[in-house]
Design goal:
By secondary structure, the protein is an alpha/beta fold. The protein is built from 10 helices and 8 strands. It has an 8-stranded parallel sheet with strand order 7-6-5-4-3-2-1-8. Strand 1, helix 2 and strand 2 form a beta-alpha-beta unit. The longest helix has 25 residues. It binds pyridoxal-5'-phosphate (PLP). Pyridoxal-5'-phosphate binds next to strand 8 and helix 9.
Amino acid sequence: MLTSQRKTELYDNFSRVRERIENAKARRGAGPDVALLAATKTVPAEDIVYATENLGLTLAGENRVQELCAKYPDLVGKCDLHLIGTLQTRKVRDTVGKVSMIESVDSLKLASEIDRRSREAGVVTDVLLEVNIGREENKSGVLPENVGGLLDEISSFEAIRPAGIMTMAPICTSEAERRKYFSETYRIFIDIYLKKRHNIIEPVLSMGMSDSFEEAILEGATEVRVGSALFGSRNYAQTL
Ligand SMILES: *Cc1c(COP(=O)(O)O)cnc(C)c1O
């Protein structure tokens, strides 16, 4: 059971984040709706279930396959699940079928394995290509110039639907710098999807986190991934 204090905190956080999303959409003007994905790493399943039942949460994203599998029995049927963290090929099998989307595809090898395991499971898995927009070394994601090529390569796969683009902007000092990365990602998204090189209905552009989702919305995000602004700082559970 969540304490009444925790319930109030979650209610306030969800309300505030939704209000900030609405305000950012109003500032942006005409454009797509913006989905709120709750980034739930380290958040107890109980809190997530509470949010689905009481706060209108419909979409959650986990980073690690092990944590996804541990929470899955509690979450199945409660909300849509995405994998948003780096995925190793050998863990694809445990992921496929549990999530409706894998947001972190950055290689042909990984895409092939998702396709193979999805065919085995008789499902089609939506994927996003993760772009390393800051060209950071040792960071996951495809370099911007390679996104189109990888999409072309995987578009013949039967059991994968390349639904859009995801990015984690570098940790930036200024709002202007973050917006620059988001707008560069948006340009890639436009080139690929809105110019119909890939015929996907309502393509997804997943970018923006607690510290940056408003800027991401202003630059064209269709999905924001918010963790700490919804659930509190990440070691919250340990400090109880
Ligand atoms: C943790 C995480 C987020 C959310 O980060 P917050 O700063 O807690 O909002 C978004 N995307 C990914 C891939 C994450 O791992």
